[in-house]
Amino acid sequence: MDLPLVLNTSMLLTLTILLTPIIFPLLSNSLKNTPDIITNTVKTSFLISLIPMTIFMHSGTESLTSFWEWKFITNFKIPISLKMDMYSLTFFPIALFVSWSILQFATWYMASDPYITKFFTYLLFFLVAMLILIIANNLFILFIGWEGVGIMSFLLISWWHGRAEANTAALQAVLYNRIGDIGLILCMAWLASTMNTWEIQQIVTPQQTPTLPLLGLILAATGKSAQFGLHPWLPAAMEGPTPVSALLHSSTMVVAGIFLLIRTHPLFNNNQTALTLCLCLGALSTLFAATCALTQNDIKKIIAFSTSSQLGLMMVTIGLNLPQLAFLHISTHAFFKAMLFLCSGSIIHNLNGEQDIRKMGGLQKMLPTTTSCLTIGNLALMGTPFLAGFYSKDQIIECLNTSYLNTWALLLTLLATSFTAVYTIRMTVLVQTGFVRIPPLTPMNENNPAVTSPITRLALGSIMAGFIITSFMIPMKTPPTTMPTYIKAMAMLVTVLGIIMALEISKMTQTMILTKQGRFSNFSTSLGYFNPLVHRISTTNLLSGGQNIASHLIDLSWYKKLGPEGLASLQLAATKTSTTLHSGLIKAYLGCFALSILIALMSTY
Amino acid sequence: MAAYLTHQQKVLRLYKKSLRHLESWCIHRDKYRYFACLLRDRFDKNKDVKDMVKATELLKAGEQEFWANQHPQPYIFADSPGGIAYERYEMYKIPEWCLDFWHPSEKAMYPDYFAKREQWKKLQRESWEREIKQLQEETPADGPRTEALPPARKEGHLPPMWWQHVTRPREQPM
Question: Name one GO biological process term (chain B) (predicted).
């Protein structure tokens, strides 16, 4: 049995199956798309993608397919090359499994939408672009997927385009991603000029890679993965419907930036500056996002900031030079984050569009399956031992603790881990427990299997995925083997401290004392004052600078400094000095005459 | 309607918004009820102040206290302006005159609907003058006092602006 052939064929079959709902309606009028057809297509695609993953688990077969080279110019050719290695073979089934669950959920969530088929087609386009990004071996193909997911994100966030906030949020996403794209194109340009290729295999740097292209890659990841500095688009992207938030902004699109860094990690190996920058940027992002999530009251915003925080953690892992561990965290995070979003979507829909946790409570009795899976997801997020999040998160914090690196980054990450526990417990307590605060006469039920089966499937994934993936993944780098007990238990300790703190504060909110506003709580609630400052200052400076250059500078330079007025002022200065000399006194003229005779006599000697 | 708010309206607006922000601060219902009763008592203590200068000063102090203690993320209902579902379905609310632009082959798919629609449009054209005449007679000289439209006064007349009301779009799409 020719294993590489089967591997290749089944991976390409996976992609082709996904394209059928797009192509078939164009061929014949009788082949119409429905949401169920698209869901079943993705399910079939997922089942087929299990074949190459099983082959890889069994024998470690990897493959690099390249077909049809674009003969761009004589010296520079761009092949369409697809790499089926551990990263793509593992991520394909995970992305397809999560997408299948989300699409099945969306058949219930968007059931009252008139253009539901268009919605599903958009999600399918997004999925295809994301899978192209994952499987690409060439930075050109990756860029195609990169832009594809950016455009689909724009179209899906502004799905309800009658709403002004949705349109601004979609524009925000596109603009911030564009700033990141500058970095990616910079790196591609450097690669094209120095290595003459965009193939990842052919990137070879014997000595230290120059920092500039690596800065470009880090900028690309900052834009796409919402690190601190280019992060505001991710909470704003919650304007889109919940299936969009679940698919794009938690599991798949936002990890594209980190995935880029994982793919190009040989470049990072020897440049310690870039690695330290990743580490510090990731630590700052994770703490900032966790701080902002502490005082949010919208359930989707809490989960969005949680995603942002976990992305910062993935960036920290890249900074530790552990790309495989970052990939493990991407995979496990996809499961429980998508499940958290689906549970929140179920709660929101059942409460008739209510997203504020101040008006939810006591849902454990009314929506048992959803709230149980919400609890499982929250426990996985906090890194409860032996659930999915534990295998990746605990290992990251252990490696961070035992490496000779930036203590500041370490402290920030630990603080962020405890904040994760705090806002998770706060969300759980306010949503599920306590007395009911929803409007009375809200009929809610979980009787629809389109709701319960995706959520329970993802719950099963959240529990098992960490264990399964760690079992067959061969580590490239030695994990730390010995460490003192308190270092080993540090993550658990910090999480437990956070849980205790959150429970105490929850108890305090029930006593009859009015909450006071402090500087820290105001910082957290206004999201660090980042949005109004940056959005106004940078745009006003840019636009007013542009206006000055366009209208004033050219006129100023050509007319006043260099052109007619400039010449005139030069002349004026010269004439003023010479006019004072022409005083009309014979004495002055005789003096000049004598001076010039003297100079002529002196020069003959 | 006059452009100014009365003192009573201002006080009641301050009371309502301070209660809503209090509800945003006090998440649990029993705590909210306790502080809401205290707030009501504070308002009730100054209920019978007859001196307008003093009453306006109290109102101004109340507004300043509200501004200092407001919640940074107040609870806004989903369909209210500023809420998360506000104008969400605006994109599906197409006006009814778009039906006139359908191609005849498309209109032929629903013959009785469009036949009935022609009758309704004829009725609207006929009653428009009478509606406008009624509104012009009934509105006071310096502008209408309220946003409510008057009912039809005479036998056989239709209420003014009935077409806009009848052909308004659905709140939520089907």
Answer: mitochondrial electron transport, NADH to ubiquinone
Contact state of B172 with A112 under an 8 Å Cβ cutoff: yes
For chain A, the structural domain boundaries read: 1-48, 112-515, 516-562, 574-604
Residue showing tokens 């290992």: A395
Alpha-carbon gap, residue A312 to A285, rounded angstroms:
5
Reduced to 3 states, what is the DSSP secondary structure of residue A377? helix
Q: Say if residue A195's pLDDT is above 90.
A: no
- Å between B87 CA and nearest CA of chain A: 5
Establish if B113 touches chain A: CB-CB under 8 angstroms.
no
For the whole model, what pTM was predicted?
0.90
Predicted ipTM beyond 0.90: no
Any bridge partners for residue A356, and if so which?
A: A298
Confidence of residue A204 (pLDDT cuts 50, 70, 90): confident
User: Which chain B residue is nearest to residue A433, measuring alpha carbons?
Assistant: B28
Residue of A nearest to B33 (CA): A512
Kindly determine whether residue A163 and residue B93, on different chains, have CB atoms separated by under 8 Å: no
Asked if B84 reaches chain A (Cβ–Cβ under 8 Å), the answer is: yes
Residue A414 Cα to chain centre, angstroms: 21
Here the tokens at position A555 are 């006129």
Burial of A62 from C-beta contacts in 10 A (0-12 / 13-18 / 19+): middle
Nearest Cα residue in chain A from B32: A512
Can you say whether residue A207 is alpha, beta or left, with left for phi > 0 and alpha for psi between -120 and 50 degrees?
A: beta
What distance in Å separates the CA atoms of residue A235 and residue A428, rounded to the nearest whole number? 20
- Token digits for A381? 């997020």
Contact state of A297 with B86 under an 8 Å Cβ cutoff = no
Cα A232 to Cα A164, A305, A385, A449, distances in angstroms: 17, 10, 32, 35
Task: State mean pLDDT over B141-157.
Answer: 87
Q: Give the tens place of pLDDT for each residue, A551-595.
A: 888 888 887 888 888 888 889 999 998 888 777 888 888 998 999
Question: Domain extents for chain B?
Answer: 7-69, 90-167
